[in-house]
Specification:
27% of the residues lie in helices and 31% in strands. It is α+β, with helices and mostly antiparallel strands. The chain has two domains: 117 residues, D-amino Acid Aminotransferase, Chain A, domain 1 (2-Layer Sandwich), CATH 3.30.470; 154 residues, D-amino Acid Aminotransferase, Chain A, domain 2, CATH 3.20.10.10.
Length: 281
């Protein structure tokens, strides 16, 4: 696989894809992004990611210069340009409001900047996945529109670094000292009293694509789902837990702070169903 990029209508070598120093992505984080994984050259749930991109754009009044079908075509061609038709790859794309002299107000004549890259992707090995991962709790200091997949990720970066320094994969955001919303770069699920709990969709969490897939797989397996906040007071009642994202897929949580959690059969059954979905023609 070779590293390539797409920038404002042109395919380029990855190292030649340069964005203007005064692009609003640099000055203000004024933009949105998505990540799609392709398994053996086949984009996985790309339509849902593109739909979410357009939702995010609508929420910040950002014009996207391509239609959903055109973005799908760009993704497909990018995979070919990267010689990744038979490999697993990660496609990252973002759109900003473009470059203009620095001013907080929207520029009148700036053209949006659309940037896409392709790079190799390796899912977590199943043996490692089955062991589960450590997580830590961290205050949810993010802004009030977490449903927008914004470039403004500094609180997430701080939370992820907090986790890394404590030997954990993820931080679980705790809102107002009361409830877990999601993790720094993933959604959070827990089995409590035999039911699968996860925070309901709202402005407090991102509507994860893998989250939505898990809800459908749970229904298929006859698992009852409760879309309600998981309270800190419920931690001792958690029977199993896991995190989900496009690149993490489904990863069991074996520890929250100092509390150990078993990697259970219900979580593993969801992982197995997810693997089957990935491998479907």
């Amino acid at each position: 696989m070779r590293r390539i990029a797409f920038l404002n209508g042109r395919f380029l070598k990855w190292e030649d894809a340069l964005i203007h120093a005064e692009d609003r992505a640099n000055n203000f984080g004024d933009g949105i992004y998505e990540v799609v994984v392709a398994y053996h050259g086949k984009p996985f749930y790309a339509k849902e990611h593109i739909d979410r991109l357009f939702y995010s754009a609508s929420q910040i009044e950002l014009h996207i210069p391509y239609s959903p079908d055109e973005i799908m075509d760009i993704i497909d061609r990018a995979i070919r340009e990267a010689n990744a038709e038979d490999e697993n790859s990660m496609i990252y794309f973002q759109i900003s409001r473009g470059f203009a002299p620095r001013d907080h107000a929207f520029p009148e004549n700036a053209e949006p900047t659309f940037y896409l890259t392709v790079k190799p992707f390796s899912p977590m090995p199943m043996e490692e996945r089955r062991r589960g991962v450590k997580t830590v709790t961290y205050p949810d200091i993010r802004w009030a529109r977490c449903d927008i997949k914004s470039l403004n990720l500094l609180p997430n970066v701080m939370a992820r670094e907090y986790a890394r320094r404590r030997g954990a994969l993820e931080s679980l955001f705790v809102k107002d000292g009361v409830k877990i919303t999601e993790a720094s770069s993933s959604n959070f699920f827990a089995f409590v009293d035999g039911k699968l709990w996860t925070h309901p969709l709202s402005n407090e969490i991102l509507a994860g694509i893998t989250r939505s897939i898990v809800l459908k797989l749970a229904e298929k397996l006859g698992i009852e789902v409760v879309e309600r906040p998981i309270l800190l007071s419920m931690l001792e009642d958690i029977e199993e837990a896991f995190i989900t994202s496009t690149t993490k897929e489904i990863i069991p949580v074996s520890q929250i702070d100092d509390m150990k959690i078993p990697v259970g059969e219900r979580t593993l059954s969801l992982i197995e169903e997810y693997q089957r979905l990935k491998e479907a023609p």
